Hints:
Structural class: alpha+beta
Order of helices and strands: HEEEEEHEEEEHE
Number of helices: 3
Amino acid sequence: MHMTIRHVCLLVLSFSALFSEAATGGLIRERYRTDRSCSLSSFSQADLQPYEACSVLPLNGENKFGRILIQFGETDCQFELQQCLPNVCYVLRDFSALLPKDLNLTSLQTPSNIPINTGIFRNISVEGANFILSDEGIFLSPSSDNIIIRYSTKSCAEFYQHHGREWPQICSEPMGLLSNVYPLYQTLDSIGCQANL
C-alpha cells in the first residue's frame, strides 16, 4: 500500500482529533459528575475515643495542612456527630470561603437577592441541631447529643462558576477544603449560639 505524505498527514490529523475529542469529553464529564463516593463518615459508636466526640471521620484523609479532603459531586451522603455537648455551638469550616469570588452581576442589578452560597456544599439537612449553611461552613447549635447531617457537594462546574479565577481548576481529585468540627467561640443569635469563652 502506497501512502503519500498527504495521506499520512490526514491520518495523523484524524487520530489527533479523535484523541482530542476523547480527552475533552472526559474533562467535561469530570466537571459535571455527581456520582462520587462520600468523603465524610461517622466514627464507630462502640469504641468512640474522647477526641472523636462530635467529630467527622474523613474517609479520604487530610492534606498536609490538616484539612479534610472532600470531592466535587458527592450526592446523598450522611454522617453522624456523636456525643456533642449541649450549650456548645460547633462549626465545620469550609475554607473555600478564602478563595476569590467572581463578581455576580445579577446580584448587583437586583440587590434584594440573597447571595448564593459559594462553598463546597450544594445542600445539607440536619437532625439534632439548629444550623446555618454559609460560604464559611456549617454552623451548628445542638439540641441533641448526636447530630445527623445529610449533604451533597457541588459539581466541579457549579463550584468554579463562582471561583472562575482559580487555576488550575481541579475536578477529579479530592481537595482539602474542610476543617473537622470544632467548638465555635462566636455568638450567632439566629441559631441560639452564645460565645463560649
